[in-house]
Amino acid sequence: MAQLFEVHPDNPQARLLKQAVALLEKGGVLAVPTDSSYALVCHLDDKAAADSLRRIRGVDDKHHLTLLCRDLSELASYARVDNRQFRLLKSATPGPYTFILEASKEVPRRLSHPARKTIGLRLPDHHVLQELLALLGAPLLATTLIPPGEAEPLNDAHDIRERLEHQIAAVLDAGACPMEPTTVVDLSGGDVVVVRQGRGALDALGL
Prior knowledge:
By secondary structure, this protein is of the alpha/beta class. The protein has helices at 14-25, 47-57, 72-78, 83-92, 127-136, 157-164; strands spanning 3-6, 30-32, 39-43, 66-68, 97-102, 118-122, 140-144, 170-173, 183-186, 193-196. It has one domain (3-205): DHBP synthase, CATH 3.90.870.10. Helix 1 (14-25) packs across helix 5.
């Protein structure tokens, strides 16, 4: 049965976050809050966990998964970023944006888009999630927690635990999330392309 870690949104208990990190390092899939909605996450380097994450979400390898990073320097090691892209990223992060960029060699080939060799990256503006990333010391592989066949993400930690109790290792409960998807911006080509307008304002990107 999935564990439930109830953490304070502003001062999350380190011992609970350490337990969550231990589950991630053992190959567990966790449900965690972000600045847009709850997400399913797993360790970047665990193929079995990534396969589980896709299976729970009901998506194939053509669906862009996202790397949740701590800062721009970490993001830049997993994507090819030129000076123009870096300035744009800096103007809008941390925040509810997902950027599609060309994956670097640090990203396992099985995780990038099979045809385009791109990956989604984001720097979430969520204190609990940032603390979790800092303790883990690496990005998390993530996807929005929308059950197969449904249109809206799950937003209640107890509901998530009840519905996914045999599929995930734990739920990190820091309260409800905004329940509005990220703004998705494709920077992998020559132009800036807004794939989806969500919670992130376009004016922060100069658009």
